[in-house]
Prior knowledge:
By secondary structure, the protein is an alpha+beta fold. Helices cover 39% and strands 16% of the residues. The protein is built from 15 helices and 11 strands. It has helices spanning 3-11, 52-57, 89-98, 146-156, 163-170, 177-182, 194-203, 209-223, 241-248, 256-271, 281-286, 293-302, 315-323, 330-337, 344-353; strands spanning 22-25, 30-32, 46-49, 61-62, 77-81, 105-108, 111-117, 122-130, 133-140, 225-231, 234-237. The strands form 3 sheets. A 5-stranded antiparallel sheet has the order 5-9-8-7-6, covered by helices on one side. It has a 4-stranded mixed sheet with strand order 3-1-2-4. A two-stranded antiparallel ribbon has the order 10-11. Strand 1 and strand 2 form a beta hairpin. Helix 7 packs antiparallel against helix 10 (256-271), helix 7 (194-203) runs antiparallel to helix 12 (293-302) and helix 9 packs across helix 10.
Amino acid sequence: xxxxxxxxxxxxxxxxxxGWFYVGVTSTRIxxxxxxxxxxxxxxxxxxxxxxEAAREAGFRACRRCHPDLAKRASNVTVALSYTAPFEGExxxxxxxxxxxxxxxxxxxxxxxxxxxxxxxxxxVALRPAGGHVQATFDxxxxxxxxxxxxxxxALLDLDCDPRPxxxxxxxxxxxxxxxxxxxxxxxxxxxxxxxxxxxxxLGQQVSLAGARTxxxxxxxxxxxxxxxxxxxxxxxxxxxxxxADGGAERVGMPASRRRAIAGLASALATGAIDLGAEDAQQQxxxxxxxxxxxxxxxAMRALRDPDAFLATDLGxxxxxxxxxxxxxERNAVRLAERWRPYRAAASQHLWATLTKAPAAGxxxxx
Length: 367
C-alpha cells in the first residue's frame, strides 16, 4: 500500500483499515486508528506502522479517543481503486470472464473474483467497476499484503493507464478509428502474477479459450494449493512455478512437446534463469524450447506491460483484419501496425473488439 493510500485512508477516516495499519502523530507522540474521530494531523506529521507494537516501540502512546491498542483487523477491506476516465470496465470483466480458470477465478453478476499469491501470505479479491472507480474488496491472510494486492489489481485492470493520448493517436486511423471512438477507454488487461500468466500463455498455444481454461483447470487440480478459507467457486491458488516444474505439467493431458515447454518454462522461472523483470525478458523467453513469437508477444502484452506488443500471427487479429476488408496475412498485419506504434497493444484490443462486443482474441489468445 503506497503512502498516498495510507494518507487518504486517514483523511477519509476509513474504518475498514482499522487494525491494518496505525498512524503516529509526531507533534503529539500519539498513535491512532485510521478512523480516529480526532482532527486529522498534517500529512508531514504522520508516520505509519503495520502493528500497534511497532508504534509503541517508536515512542508513541495509544490515543484515548480511538483506542488503537484494541483495534482488530477487519476480515475484509474495501478500497476504491481510482483511474483516469474514460474506462470500459464491463469489457474488462468480460475479457477476464472468458479466460477465468476454474477454482482460481470466477465472474458472477459483473464481479470478478480470484485468489492471490502474495509476498507474505495468500488472499482473495473481488473487483467491481463502480461509478468513477473500481471497488476492490480484499480478504487477506496477512495485512502487510494489502499494498502489493492493490498494485497487482491495478496492473490487472490497467488502471494506471491514461487512455486519452492513446485514443488521440488511434482515433483517426481509417481501420480501427471507429472502434476507438466508440470505446476510447478500452484498456489492455494485465495480470496479478507474471509467472502465472506466462505458464497460462503456453497452455493456451493453439487451442481455443475453452480448451485453455480446461487445461489450466486440470493443472490447478493436480498442482494447485487449496485455500485455507475458500470463497464460493474460488478454492485454490494457481500452481507456483515450482509446483508446475515439479511434475505438475506431466500430470495434465496434452501433447508431450507442450508439456516439455511448460515444464521448461516453469523450471526457468522457479530458478531465476528467466527473469520477467529484465530488459531482455522477451529474448530470454524466446531462447526456451517450444516458446515462439506469439507466446512471447502475448506475455509481453499482459505480463511485461509492453504497450507496443503486437501479435501479428494471432488468429483473432487475422479474422478482424479480414472482416475489415484487409489482407489478413502476417506481412500485411505487420505493415498496418506500423502506424499504430507505440500503442500496438491497445490497437490489438480494438481489433479484437470488432469480432465481439467484449475484447476477445482468437484461438491462440487463451491464457
